[in-house]
UniProtKB/TrEMBL annotation:
Signal peptide extent: none
Entry-linked SUPFAM superfamilies: TrpR-like (SSF48295)
Lineage, highest ranks first: Bacteria, Bacillati, Bacillota, Clostridia, Lachnospirales
GO molecular function, one term: sequence-specific DNA binding
Protein name, entry field: DUF6431 domain-containing protein
Residues covered by the DUF6431 domain: 11-79
Pfam families: DUF6431
C-alpha cells in the first residue's frame, strides 16, 4: 500500500482521472492462519474520495476477500491441505476452527470459480492441486486476482455479490481499478 498513489488513479465509478484523494481510514479485523494456528489481526483500510462523482471507495489489498472475515490465504491454506489429502475434513475443521458447513461452502465456491476461470474443458483436465499451485506460484498473484475481477465482476472466492452504488445504476465494480501493486506470495 505504500506504493499506492490515489491521485494517479482513475475513478471506477465515473472514469475520471486524477480526482481521487485519501478520504479516511477505517479499522476491521481479519482471520488468518499462520504458523499452524488461527489468528485474528487488525487492519487499517484506506478509503479514497473522488471529487468528480463524490463517491468513496475502499482500497482492499489482495489478501482481503470482499465481505469475508477470513483472509484469502486462510481459505487457500485450508483447501490446499484438503487437496493434499493428508487430513480428513473433520481434522481440518478442528484445526482451522470452522464448521463443516463452512468448509463445504468454500469448497463449492472454489469448484465454481475454478471452472469459471478455466472453462469447462480445461477444468476437467486440471486438478485442484495443480490449479492451486498455478495461482499461488504466479509472479504476482495480483494479476490473477485482478484478471478474475475483470472477467466476473467479483473477487476470487467471494461469496456475496457487490452492492450497486446508490446513485449510479450502471457503475462498474469498485475494485476494478484500485489494484494496489502488491504481491502476497
Ligand atoms: Zn468518480
Amino acid at each position: 500500500m505504500a506504493k499506492f498513489q490515489p491521485h494517479l488513479e482513475t475513478c471506477p465509478i465515473c472514469g475520471s482521472a486524477g480526482n481521487c484523494h485519501i478520504h479516511d481510514y477505517y479499522g476491521r479485523s481479519i482471520i488468518d492462519f499462520q504458523a499452524g494456528k488461527r489468528e485474528k489481526s487488525d487492519l487499517c483500510v484506506m478509503r479514497v474520495f473522488c471529487d468528480s462523482c463524490e463517491h468513496a471507495h475502499a482500497i482492499l489489498p489482495d489478501v482481503i476477500i470482499p465481505y469475508s472475515s477470513y483472509s484469502l490465504l486462510f481459505i487457500l491454506r485450508l483447501l490446499g491441505q484438503y487437496f493434499a489429502g493428508r487430513f480428513t475434513i473433520e481434522q481440518l475443521c478442528e484445526r482451522y476452527q470452522i464448521s463443516t458447513k463452512q468448509f463445504y461452502k468454500w469448497l463449492s465456491l472454489w469448484k465454481t470459480h475454478k471452472q469459471e476461470w478455466l472453462g469447462i474443458l480445461s477444468d476437467l483436465d486440471t486438478s485442484d492441486v495443480s490449479f492451486l499451485r498455478s495461482i499461488i506460484l504466479l509472479d504476482s498473484f495480483s494479476s490473477f486476482a485482478m484478471g478474475f475481477i475483470l472477467h466476473f465482476a467479483h473477487s476470487f472466492l467471494q461469496s456475496h455479490r457487490n452492492p450497486i452504488p446508490a446513485s449510479l445504476k450502471n457503475a462498474q465494480y469498485h475494485q476494478k481499478v484500485f489494484a494496489p501493486d502488491i504481491s502476497i506470495f
